[in-house]
Amino acid sequence: MRYTEAPARRAELLRRLGSEGYVSSAALAEEFGVSEMTIRRDLRQLHLEGHARRVTGGASLPTGGVRGATFEERDLSAAAEKAAIAAACAEHLAGAGTVALDAGTTVAGVAALLEPGTTVVSHSLPVLATCAEREDLSLIALGGTYQASTRSFTGQATREGLERVAVDVAVLSATAVDSTGLLCANDLDAEIKRALSAGARRRVLLVDSTKIGARAPIRFGSLSSIDLVITGPGVDEEQRELLSGAAEVRYAAAPLEATS
User: Fold this and answer.
1) Strand pairing of 218-221 and 181-184?
2) CA–CA separation, 13 vs 40, rounded Å?
3) Tens-digit pLDDT profile for residues 69-103
4) What is the pTM of this model?
């Protein structure tokens, strides 16, 4: 049987994980008639949801209880592609006076690459830590209630802080992008993403290829609200079609060294 739709594939992957304890990316790609990248994307989504544990060559059942991926685990996922996307974004931000940086592992990489003189607005702890070490940036930190899963501050105080600043460009992240729009993991994160988007003159979305066509429970926006999407060079034709609703899409240059 050819599993051409993501929900059907992932349901079958869960069934096989339950019965066999392990699945192989290469074997499933051949059997299902899809690319191995597509299977890896499915397995990554199941990992983020706590249903699987990614291992070399495939995935196994999670051990020690069900949990989602930590910030550090997400940061290591597709690291070379994320670095290339961050570099492409930094080039696009040249000349922007005030830039808001969302919470997210790809967006966090932009902070170190911003040109001197930029004013940075952020609720992301990794972004704030990076910017605080640079004497050539101005930093506006948004406080609130700390959310460990995203290493960021959220809630009413964060939203009120955003209402008091004027932002030229908001650089946004997403847990997933599919035909229904931009998705994230929880309502608190969604509220801040909407506020970042609403308060900026221009909106840029950074998304690596593993997130295009993936799923997450909360919708926070649509591609039509995004002025520019920056993604990696390895997206397939189906993923390019999903991104076509954005005003502009740019593909970061391939990293010089491939990672396994």
Assistant:
1) antiparallel
2) 11
3) 555 555 555 688 899 999 999 999 999 999 999 99
4) 0.73
